[in-house]
Amino acid sequence: MDKQKNVLLKWTKQKGMGQALTAFGGVIILMIVFTVMNTNFASSHNLMSLVRQTCPYLLVGIGQGYVCITGNIDLSIGSVIGMSSMISATLMCNGVHPILAILVAFVICMVVGGVNGVLVGGFKLPPFIATLGTMTIGRGIAQIVNGNYNTGDIGQGAAQVFRDIFYYGKFLGLYTGVWITIIIWIIFNYILSKTKSGRHIYAIGSNVDAARLSGVNVLTTVTKAYLISSFCAFTTGLMVLAAAGMGAMDAGMTYEMYGVAAAVIGGISTLGGSGLLIGVIAGAGVWAVLQNGLTFVNAPVAIRNIIIGTIVIICVLLDIIRSSGKKDK
Description:
Blueprint: H1 2-12, H2 17-37, H3 44-69, H4 77-93, H5 98-122, H6 127-144, H7 158-168, E1 170-171, E2 174-175, H8 176-194, H9 196-206, H10 208-213, H11 218-244, H12 255-265, H13 277-296, H14 301-328
Antiparallel strand pairs: 1-2
């Protein structure tokens, strides 16, 4: 029993766990509030839909979380989602098998992540500028692949199988898209918490110069973080495409903000060096519950945006205050 208590105590004292647990508490409180305001919010049908709605936010939160822990940011996430969706859809609409279409989109999306890593980690370009540039380029690619038009329906047959895998299908009572998200979270959480690469990511975010002197390859590590961010955005793009059944040039718009929100609300520091991916689950949950719950109570879109934007600012402000307090001690 004492051993179990020690394990639990050690787990709760991990750096960033306090913020993560607070975010989970926030999810529970929000769900209670929205249930009181509208009992339909707690219906089994809506809760299942809510879990599925959380997946894209969680995926982009994982990617943005990796990048934020290195002390950087990725503004290209939304454009990579758009590229993933438009490239895959355009190829499918032209008779290309979904597997090949996905592979082509994957390669192109990962190139964006690699470029981001080289620009930020190699050439030391400010991440805001580097990823703002690739964001604009990526959106241009999403627009040009189908001649500046959205695609038509991606079709039936193999395309329908693709849609079932990434959105409509179910396995053991959960949507397959949820299972895909769970598997991705488990893999990247293990990498971040149990491997040398994960330790290097935290080291760079804590003090890049000290990490370099300790033998950490900054270029390689930063590039890995951006590649993971692009992979998560690429997968999100497939989910968006599967849900819509067609490619949209504006797919992924504002998702970079969703990623930052999920990561920051979940306790990942925008200053780098701290945070846990378990917190991103809570952060994505807060975002999804707010979007879903405010819709249930018929709150205007403008009000939803103001509330969510305010929460993000408060979380970042608290992170800065907390970090400043630690430095003063």
